[in-house]
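Deliverable D5.2: sample structural annotation.
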Amino acid sequence: MDSPPQDSSQDPQPALPVVHEEAPREPILTLPVALTAYILLLAVIHLRVLLPPELENWTIDVFGFIPKRYDSSLLNLEIPGGAGAKVWTFVTYSLLHANLTHLGFNVLWLLPFGSALARRFGAVRFFLFLAVTAAAGALAHLVTHEHAVAPMIGASASVSGAMAAAIRFAFVRGSFLSFNRSDADTAARVPALPLSRALRDGRVVGFLAVWFGVNIIFGVGAIGVDSETTSVAWQAHIGGFFAGLLLFTFFDPVPRVRSDAADASSQDVSDRI
């Protein structure tokens, strides 16, 4: 007698391997919204170069930082902007650039350091931090160029401040300059080292040495411009850099590692290279 046909639906199905899909890792240089908005703002403001020369010069005089504006011995000196310019130019000068090369250079440095900082701080803290470091750069320029007439313009003091702040956490395991880094958001939010510990890290010290050497020797960045000369305001870079390095803690929303655990948290494979 023939056996009854078996229902194929009852046959046991072979076990299939379980596939776990990993979440896509976000590129480390994907720009956060705050930084994108800042770069677009700089680009839009730079369209002022399309204005007639006399109007463009007026814009630089009103919104550029001019140390002579604060010279009380020159009571009869007429500088566009009036008393209000003595306040707003501490920040507005950083939104102006001499040319596309000047603008492009600052944006280029902002891409890695500003991106990490914007992710870490959030938009409000990020914009406030840029304003504070710009003001610190202007103050350093004022102290060292008390009687200068040429307006200083450029975002380099803020860029320098962003670089200084970023190195407080950039080399920590998992961060964006670490060999063992994670996705962009995670890399930007690793706990920062206390400043005293960071300054003992050979990578941080090396970065500081190169940065100061480049700025003192070549003076790249913020530019003082007038009708006849173009000079580099490297003191403003240093003012912004120190402000970013020292004030980082007041802006940082990420809890720091304990002092006794800081050394261990900062180690990665680069220690063995």
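Annotation notes: The chain has a mean pLDDT of 78. The two ends are 78 Å apart (CA to CA).
The annotation will be released with the project's public dataset once the embargo ends.
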